[in-house]
Design a protein that fits this description.
The chain has one domain: Immunoglobulin-like. Helix content is 11%, strand content 45%. It has one helix and seven strands; from the N terminus they run H-E-E-E-E-E-E-E. Strands 3-2-5-6 form a four-stranded antiparallel sheet, with no helix packed on it. It has a three-stranded mixed sheet with strand order 4-1-7, with no helix packed on it. A hairpin with a 5-residue loop joins strand 5 and strand 6. The longest helix has 12 residues. The protein is globular, with a radius of gyration of 17 Å. It starts with a helix and ends with a strand. The model has no long low-confidence stretch (mean pLDDT 87).
Length: 105
């Protein structure tokens, strides 16, 4: 009985997964995009790569991504890494309302 109560409490205490929505990401830069992480640039905290394994976006191409959205914190930074150059940060993207993000030079 105690084990069942503890199990129920741990399930209830687990944070629910964030809802997701679709976001079109276009690569208008001159290099393939290898990773895209959502987070906070000032705190240097980044989530996992939303492109996933083998999910590069070639030059001039786009990809629809399912991104997590925290309605209490819609505005996030995007960290993008490339094949042949340093990563960039795209600041202040409103993930609750944005339909598209261009990753440019």
């Amino acid at each position: 009985m105690l084990a069942a109560v503890l199990l129920a409490q741990s399930i209830l205490a687990s944070p629910a997964p964030l809802p997701t929505r679709m976001l079109l990401v276009l690569n208008t830069s001159g290099d393939p995009v290898l990773t895209l992480r959502i987070g906070d640039a000032q705190a240097q905290r980044w989530g996992h790569d939303v492109l996933g394994f083998d999910g590069a976006i070639d030059v001039g191409r786009g990809r629809e991504l399912r991104v997590p959205v925290d309605r209490a914190q819609c505005v996030r930074d995007l960290q993008v890494s490339f094949l042949d150059r340093a990563p960039i940060v795209i600041p202040h993207v409103n993930l609750c309302t944005a339909a598209r993000v261009d990753i440019g030079a």
